[in-house]
Amino acid sequence: MSHLSKLKLCFLAGTLEHGGAERQLFYILQALCAQGAAVRVLSLDKGGFWEHRIRELGVAVANIGATPSKWKRLVQILKEARKDRPDVLQSQHFFTNAYACVAAALVRTTGIGAMRNNGRSEVRDCGRLGGWLNLHLPRLIAANSRNAMQYALGQNIPASRLYFLPNVVDTERFRPETVSSDSPLILLAVGRIVKQKRFDRFVSLVGRLRARSLDVRGLIVGPRDPNEDILPELENQARKLGLLPEFLRFEDCASDMRPYYHASAACVLTSDFEGTPNVLLEAMASGRPVLATRVGGVADIVQDGHTGFLLDPEDLDGLTANATELIRSARLRREMGAHARSFVQENHSLQRLPSYLSKLYERALPKGFCSAVEVVTITSI
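RESULT FIELD:
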């Protein structure tokens, strides 16, 4: 059994809704439970997509976000932390870093912050004061992209306070499957329907490919955001290009994405900014090549010309050319897809997570607390 079994950990999540940070939290909790660690979760929302699955792991979830008052939320977090003082109080979202680190200091335990995107956008979204506090209060930040770490270094955060915790994917659950060559090829885009994802570029791409008489369809899978509903704009754009309803479809978020990856020829990411997108890791584990904008941590996981193609965000001509190349060559799709899966298995598989976590807590905790770490294998969910 791992020395992680000695640890008591409490995670603070801003939400447990359907998102990449929340999926990674589930993987982390699963890994820690398998190691014998005692874990629990505090969440600012209630009834999110992942809450039930986290409870099924045997992990207690306390909902502490009923009040919009930041001070009352902090008091609730303190009450929960004092019930059974954890060795680590760890934030899973950037915007909850200050809560976690202030509470950890007050109960005299170790606080760990998180960076889940590119750093710059997270600080901006929290406002000047909130962004500064969430970036500077944590004594240690677990970031899922080296791009975010570079941003933090540029904001005078010492390297000793940053730890690279890469996203992982269940490579047993996400596996390759052959697609019928008789069907029109499908390009897949996945994510919340928000401006950040720039699905308008994807719609334009499908329009350009259709204009070249290529037998291709576009599919966008993701939930609408009630605070930023741009779906009508995208539908109007697609309608003007003659893509609706036959050549482009929009579908709400699915609980099981595997059929979508299997049905696609390639996965396309057109975002303006990202951390390390789970969707790309899942598509690559499924043996699919990817076309993606060179933003955030994307360049860490996509090897241009080997596992897919990387483009500058505004390079629609390049995106169209690379997509055309993939559509016209089944051999290229197979080779890139095989390379993509191998890369994910070697660097981002679920089995590597215990080692990554062990090193994180060795860095965060006093020397000798969790040294001489052994790990056990994590099985598929």
